[in-house]
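SEQUENCE WITH STRUCTURE:
===
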Amino acid sequence: MAHGNGPVLASSVVGMLGGLVLPVVFPAQGANLAVVAICASFGGMSSRERLPNAWAVLAVGVFTGVVFIFSTPHLGGAGGKLGTIAFGSVLAVSGFRWAAGQLDLSNAQ
C-alpha cells in the first residue's frame, strides 16, 4: 500500500473482499465467514508494538475465530460485538505474550 494508507483502509479492503468473495465461494456459510474476516481484520489493526510478527497476528486470528464461534448463539444483534471480540482477542494474546516474557508493558501508554 502507498504511504499514508493505514490499518483502517487495510481492514476495509479485507472486509470488502471477504464480503464479496466468501459468500460466492462458500454459499452455505460464506456470509458468516465474511463476518469473521471483518472481525479478524479489526484485530489486525493493532500496532506493531502490540503484535510484532505474523505469529502474534495468527494467534489473534485464531483466538478471534474461536471466540466468535462460541459467541454466535449469544449476543445476537448486540452492537459492537465484532470490535469487542477483536479487542478481547488482542488483549488475551498480549497477556499471554507478557506472561511468557515476550512483551514489555512497562513503557505502554
